[in-house]
Amino acid sequence: MFARAYAVLVLVVALPLAACSDEASPTAPTTPTGTTTTTGVNFAVTLEAAPDPTVATPSTGVTYVQDGQVLAYQWTTTFAVVVRLDAEQTASNVTALSLALQQSTGGIRITPVTGEDEQYRFATRPSGSRLEPGGEVVIEFDLFYTLPNQGREAIISVNMDLLNDSGQTLNQTIQLQIAP
């Protein structure tokens, strides 16, 4: 019994100390809303969303199929994510990109009831995928969506993977809001 309690105590004390290690590890410093900087071992990028929040307008002509019915998306919005590479960094490429949408109220994510989901589709218009030191890539998004709560307010998460010329990888996510 004493050995188990001692092992738990060691873990409780050791885990917080491991989190305070001086070794290089990814960090996310505090930045203004809509801007995220991630630094890995010799690899740093800054993501900035504009506008944040973005505004949705009624959608026309873009449809999806649900339960055998063709339905029109209710809303559409357009925004951009700017990916910046520090001047001291090695040239990099954006290698993967994904987007997730979650309904929200007052900026708080609201999980839909069982059996209901957010319906959305997006298209991208990147200025490129290659980031030279000190450079940037702008990725524009057109998003069409319908929310289970029939509202327009939502949180968008854009996730991307980057690979630099030294073979290092970095995964980065930025979130922005769609205003009510």
Distinct helical segment count:
1
Radius of gyration: 20 Å
- Global outline: elongated
Q: State the end-to-end CA separation.
A: 56 Å
**Structural class of the helices, strands and pairings?**
mainly beta
The CATH top-level class label? Mainly Beta
Q: Roughly how much helix do the residues carry, as a percent range?
A: 10-25%
Strand content: over 45%
Mean pLDDT, all residues: 83
The H/E string reads: HEEEEEEEEEEEEE
| Uncertain parts | 1-35
CATH architecture title: Sandwich
Characterize the largest beta sheet: strand count, sense, and whether it forms a barrel: 6 strands, antiparallel
Number of domains: 1
Q: Would you report the number of β strands? A: 13
Within CATH, the superfamily carries the name ApaG domain
CATH fold annotation? Immunoglobulin-like
Written account of the structure:
The chain has 1 helix and 13 strands; from the N terminus they run αβββββββββββββ. It is mainly beta. The protein has one domain (25-178): ApaG domain (Immunoglobulin-like). The longest helix has 18 residues, at 2-19. Residues 1-35 have low confidence and may be disordered.
